[in-house]
Amino acid sequence: MTKRLTSVWRASQKLFACSACSRGFPRLSQLEEHKATHQPLKPFMCLECGKSFTQKTRLKTHQSVHTGERPFSCKICGKIFTVLGNLKIHQEIHKKGR
């Protein structure tokens, strides 16, 4: 699939729109997660530095800054990541090189 077709396909998949900013998401769960960014309340606070987050998962990811934990590694080149999504984006580099 070409880049243009991919972007058109992705645009058509954004079925759920945020009422605050109109950003679109393909899944309702992603919209719900995004909505929290518009809330002033950030109940999950890092005990190391005091930074607060709207979601517990975001706090857990942030804590790797302090622990150095990087649980996701590329099987091709060995580069390590704190977030699975970043590993998946990185792996596209190897796919393009085929």
Automatic annotation (TrEMBL):
Which PROSITE patterns does the entry link to? ZINC_FINGER_C2H2_1, ZINC_FINGER_C2H2_2
Q: Chief localization class?
A: nucleus
The protein's location, in the record's own words, is:
Nucleus
Keyword list (alphabetical) reads: DNA-binding, Metal-binding, Nucleus, Repeat, Transcription, Transcription regulation, Zinc, Zinc-finger
Keyword Zinc among UniProt keywords: yes
Instruction: Work out whether the entry's keyword set contains Zinc.
Output: yes
**Could you state a single Gene Ontology molecular function term?**
DNA binding
Please provide one cellular component term from the Gene Ontology annotations of this protein: nucleus
Give the record's GO biological process terms.
regulation of gene expression
Name-wise, this protein is: C2H2-type domain-containing protein
Organism annotation:
Mola mola (Ocean sunfish)
